[in-house]
Specification:
Length: 225
């Protein structure tokens, strides 16, 4: 409703770029019935960045188990109530936890709730964080650490940026199609650490990003949006 109200509907062929999307992502795009001048840009997925020197996480871990493994170390949680709700659901089956319940689950870990790591990921006692993959992988690259990123379909879900062509001026049409193209998005994902809707990992350079990309593609059919 917000898109229909705020974004002008322009006759456009921009949607034709979606024909080459990853099949699962294309079906998701089609199900949303976006106007023909609006397409997906990049996707990101929530997940767990973890430090092998402090903790070892696995996809079957419950929330209680994760905190138990983290012991007295540092945990960073995203400051977003909708995202955090998914995190709470993991292994508890509850859509929300009382403060008393959460304090019991977190055990002796030191928790920071923030939208920015603020260099916390560089600390030796960093155990894990629950964050968007784009931000987490960017921090991983800057920290130059041997961290791992875990996508868990129980608590991970996809969010997509949208690209809109706002008029039919030749320059606007040209730029919109460039930004929506497979060639552009496949190239730029190496710099942004976000996923292209084409889900093309053929030119992914960094080993850690390639590993996470494989996880992402393998979980596409089970991840929530």
């Amino acid at each position: 409703p917000l898109i229909a109200k705020e974004i002008p509907h322009v006759a456009s062929n921009l949607w034709r770029n979606t024909n080459n999307y990853n099949p699962i992502i294309r079906r998701r795009y089609q199900a949303r019935n976006y106007p023909e001048n609006i397409v997906f840009f990049y996707q990101s997925v929530t997940g767990f960045l973890w430090n092998p020197k402090a903790v070892s996480l696995a996809s079957k871990d419950s929330l209680v188990t994760m905190f138990k493994k983290a012991k007295n170390n540092l945990v960073v949680l995203i400051d977003d109530p909708i995202v955090f709700q998914k995190f709470q659901y993991l292994g508890t089956g509850k859509k929300s936890l009382s403060l008393r319940e959460f304090l019991k689950i977190k055990q002796n870990t030191k928790i920071f709730i923030t939208n920015s790591y603020d260099m916390l990921y560089k600390k030796t006692n960093f155990a894990f964080s629950y964050m968007w993959s784009g931000a987490a992988l960017s921090d991983l690259a800057h920290a130059n650490k041997s961290y791992k990123f875990l996508i868990d379909s129980r608590a991970s879900y996809i969010s997509s940026d949208l690209l809109a062509q706002l008029n039919n001026k030749p320059g606007v049409v040209c730029v919109a199609n460039l930004l929506a193209s497979k060639k552009f998005l496949t190239k730029e994902q190496n710099y942004t650490y976000y996923f292209s809707p084409y889900a093309n990992r053929s030119n992914v350079e960094q080993p850690f990003f390639k590993e996470v990309y494989e996880q992402y593609i393998n979980n596409l059919s089970t991840l929530h949006w």
